Amino acid sequence: DVLHSFWVPQLQAKTDMISGKVNRMWIQADEPGRYRGQCAEFCGLQHAQMAFYVVAQPRPDFDAWLDRQAQSAGSPSNPGADAGETVFLDETCAGCHAVRGTEAVADLGPDLTHLATRETIAAGALDNNRGDLALWITDPQEVKPGASMPPTDLSSQELEDLLDYLEQLD
Q1: What is the pTM of this model?
Q2: Whether 9 and 46 share a structural domain
Q3: How far is CA 56 from CA 3, 65, 79, in A?
């Protein structure tokens, strides 16, 4: 990988991340809120897409969120989501992504266990809504040229079922 320098201007100074070295960051927010961060070191073609958010919450809210994140995904909640889980497991998705509580245990791409609770997808490049999720799944290179995620060749029904499944992963 390359050198990154993560920066949340309202909360902290820049912190360099050097490939192969362990580094730690301490971020403290005096007020609850959502704070935008960015990689501040040119790190390659996707540098401009390296935005992220820090969500600062009161401790009880954070503890509840953390407990929820440790749980496995629930079972599909409707027939479309059930069919979508099959698409996820049988197509290329499960080769890169994990969904805890299923057979999908890969760790090449992000863990999608609680995907529906996220505000953004594609490393912050898109809002987490059905249309943007469909775009990211079908043509990730349109969103982030050079991204590691390959395009998929799903039928329109498979895509709809997959979206039903992913949208219920909360």
Answers
A1: 0.83
A2: yes
A3: 26, 12, 37
